[in-house]
Every structure is written in structure tokens, then in C-alpha cells.
Amino acid sequence: MAHYAFDHGITHFDLANNYGPSYGSAEETFGFIMKKSFKPYRDELFVSTKAGYDMWPGPYGNWGSRKSLMASLDQSLVRMGLDYVDVFYSHRYDPETPLEETMQALVDIVRQGKALYVGLSRYPADKAEEAYRYLEARDVHCLLYQGRYNLFDRAPEEEGILGQARAYGVGFIAFSPLAQGLLTSRYLQGVPEDSRMAQGRFLKREVLTEAVLEKIKALDRVAAERGQTLAEMSLAWVLKDELVTSVIIGASSVAQLEDNLKALRKVDFSREELERIEAICHTPDGGQ
């Protein structure tokens, strides 16, 4: 999948210290691919990783202290076989550590050459603004803000995160653009036995209410009229706004990745299409 992605123009690989079935395993897998085939193309790759969620036992295996962030990044670089990452994120705001300590760690990580840029993930708007100002004052611009954003989850709009990012010249990168599979054709006819929802992994059955299913079906009709699958339209909708730098997709097969890439063929929407989509998403009974 990684090779297919790179061969089709995807150069950004988004990781975190605790991604994978076991913590660190996603970075280790990427490190294997890096050593085996990607090493000659390192300067064409844009690799990011994060720290801030639970990683190892003890007081420094979590949150955003200076020791935690620096130790975690050192471990991540070893697992990936890299000298530096392109972006290092503070994965979440730490209420137990002064914001200045977390941000200064990011500043020093850039000055040490272990990351070219820094980013924030899932920070509340008020703390993100403080962080942007702290970093800018020390000549380390925050490159990206990463947050959950899709047709069903509008928090970045409602909380002002998107507008704030634009005001500070920060790119926004969306994760979960397909709402963990809800915004695909996967659940149109029920819950497949091999799905995340059936297995109770990350997506619970109670999320798929009758009202939500009606919304999914209504959105699927709009997508069909556009000549797209629901997944293609959902990705295109996120990418339509110039405020959104990119989306992070969690494809589990080459076929899924191939389908996701088709979204790029049509990212423009008419006013009527946007109005229909908004009516569907904001109507409790699913709209028409």
C-alpha cells in the first residue's frame, strides 16, 4: 500500500508514537519500508509523527512535558530509522504541564534539527492561539493543526479552529474524513460482519441510528448524482475549502486507496449541491 501511495503522488505519511496494534509498531513498520525501498526518496517524503498520548508506563510516557516529548521523538526516530521528521506534533493539549514548557520543547526540537516543522493536534482554540503566538515569537512557525473533520463532525467550524488557523497562517489537516467508515457505502445495507462496527473497534453499533442511516443514504444519492461514491464525495467535500491543506485517510487495502484517490477528480461543488448536503447533515430525520 505504501508503494502504491507513493507511486500515485502521496508523499505525506502520518504517524504517531502509539499508532499500531502495539505501541510503536506503525513506526517500526514504516522504518522497515523506509530501509527496504524508500530511503533513496527520503527528500521527496514528508513524514510526521506525534507524542502526547499514552506510550509507556511512568510519569513521562504520556502528556506533553519537555522530557516526554523529547524522549518520545528520539524513540520514534530510532524506530523509523530517520535522522529527522518533517513535522513533529504535540498530539494533545496537556492541562498538567505549562503550555510554555510544551511549546519550548517544540522550539528546541526544531533548533536541534530533529524536526523541520512543528504542529498541534486536537488543541482547544484558546490554547492553540496561545501556542501559535509563543512559537511565532521564537521564529518557529506552527505549520499544521490536525483535527477531526468530516461531514458529520463540524467541530473545527463550530469552534473557530479553521478560521483561527487561517488567521495565523497555519494549515489544517483533517483526520477521520470518512467518519471511521460511516461516510462510505459500507453500512448502507446494514453492518457487515468484518466491519469495525461489528467487531466493536473504535465504532460502536449505537452510532448507526436510523436517523444517521437515513442521512448516509441521502448523501449517497447526492454523490451518485455527482458521479461519485459516497466516500469520494465525502473526501472531496473536506478538500473543497482552501483552508484544508490535506486529509489523512486510513485505507486498509490498495483497492480502498485507489477509490479514495478518485475523489481528486472532482472537488468542486455547486451551490445547490452544498445546500442539499447541509440540509441533510443538519436535519435530524436525515433530510431528502
TrEMBL record:
What Pfam families does the record point to? Aldo_ket_red
> Could you tell me the Gene Ontology terms of the biological process aspect for this record?
methylglyoxal catabolic process
Tell me the leader sequence span.
none
CDD domains under this entry? AKR_AKR14A1_2 (cd19089)
What keywords is this UniProt entry annotated with? NADP, Oxidoreductase
Record keyword Oxidoreductase present:
yes
Q: Which InterPro entries match?
A: K_chnl_volt-dep_bsu_KCNAB-rel (IPR005399), NAD(P)_OxRdtase_dom_sf (IPR036812), NADP_OxRdtase_dom (IPR023210)
Q: Which residues form the NADP-dependent oxidoreductase domain?
A: 2-280
One GO MF term: oxidoreductase activity
SUPFAM superfamilies membership: NAD(P)-linked oxidoreductase
PANTHER family, per the entry: HYPERKINETIC, ISOFORM M, L-GLYCERALDEHYDE 3-PHOSPHATE REDUCTASE
Q: Which family does it belong to?
A: Belongs to the shaker potassium channel beta subunit family.
Protein name as it appears in the record: Oxidoreductase, aldo/keto reductase family protein
